[in-house]
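Teaching assistant's notes for section 4

Start the section by putting this record on the projector. Ask students to predict, before seeing the second block, whether Probable periplasmic serine endoprotease DegP-like will look compact or extended. Collect guesses on the board.
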Amino acid sequence: MDNGPTQEARPAPAIAAPSAGAARGPASVADLAEGLLDAVVNISTSQSVDVAGRGVPPLEAPEGSPLQDFFDDLLQDRDGLGNRRVQSLGSGFVVDPSGVVVTNNHVIADADTITVNFADGTQLDAELIGTDPKTDLAVLKVEPEEPLVSVKFGDSEALRIGDWVMAIGNPFGLGGSVSIGIVSARGRNINAGPYDNFIQTDAAINRGNSGGPLFDLNGDVVGINTAIISPSGGSIGIGFSVPSNLAVNVIDQLREFGETRRGWLGIRLQAVTDDIAEGLGIGEARGAVVMGIVEGGPSDNGLLKVGDVIVSFDGAAVESSRDLPRIVAETPVGKAVAVEVLRKTATDKPAERTSVEVTLGRLEDGEKLMAESDDAAPTSDPEAAETGDTDAGPVETLGMTLTEIDPTLREQYALAEDAKGVVITAVAPSSNAAEKGIEAGTLIREVAQEEVATAREVADKIAKLKDEGRRNALLLLAASNGDLRFVVVPIE
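Reveal the predicted structure now:
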């Protein structure tokens, strides 16, 4: 049988075989390690812990028993009865010959005293310059008699998966120890903080390595060893390092100000799924969708709108909602930046690309503003006057029972006085809405990016979508606290 014209077979592209040396890895890192070991330090901390009141009853012997003296000696130390000195060990490295040392925040957290131990046996008390729990970084200062051996930061963005790296640290308190491996992955999110972008490596990292440097084979610091995944506490070849490009900005701010000063856009975000991308008419899933504007924040100027999908920030592409907070945080406070968004202006037209300019605020000030806003949130007022067609009865659609806001529902679901939309009063357990996590007390604000005010309006718009052959309904939902999210519910 003739299957049509055939194409001439082409040879597969040649793949260069690795050299014998490359297959084994570097022949030796002895010279490299020798020049770096003196810049890597051990960090020891001490903390006084009051063990009284921790559920352990005091040790008491019968009256007159000589055992009472023994019990008292058992609990007594230099800080008094019931106190114990807790010590811990970690790693760090010198980044300035004058005595600036970088380590992890969790290594020195809650410490009463911090001591930096050098390879030659020198011990120096350290002053804490600043910490950043969000990236788990801390900067210390010691006062050496002579300039210290220091190391410099390299470009973590230049790392490729498979590149050789070397870790130096203080595993299990054994002192300076060197291990080597490769970059196993980049951009790892292990839910350690809001700016997770870890380098994963199989170079052995164990307890006590925290805060130590990860070097490339040029001897530059490309990461700060922070965490491991291990059922035993020992290395199983899954270690994580804070990338140098993320760390340098934080360290510079801690050295200059003693605190971080991150950029802040003043918006709430949601990830763009394939369903949401289809509902918003933006094609492939990318970017971060704006779900709220913080009142009084940098974006509270009417330029950004709920439903906008941010795809570029200050010239940097935004691939996902996880990328944007990190990019914004690394941008200087007060900088006017161009924010490119995809915005849908009509239901029957694809989203259009547009650009707005926002002058960034400071994240730390924004966190205070949002906390104050939450504390001052309006409470429900059962006697508040209502507007709209409240005589219309409940409507059922997509497994949801809907009705307009009235004083009773406002009180029942603790809805804000200025809450808008249609109240979901019940959700059928086996419905598509239930599978999407929609619950009673939630408000529907928009259907297919069109505002709704009555239950009948919701049902009519969903019916229209079904008549148009649409398979899903894009709903903008509001929780009782005002938080917004997009949900795509299949239309049956």
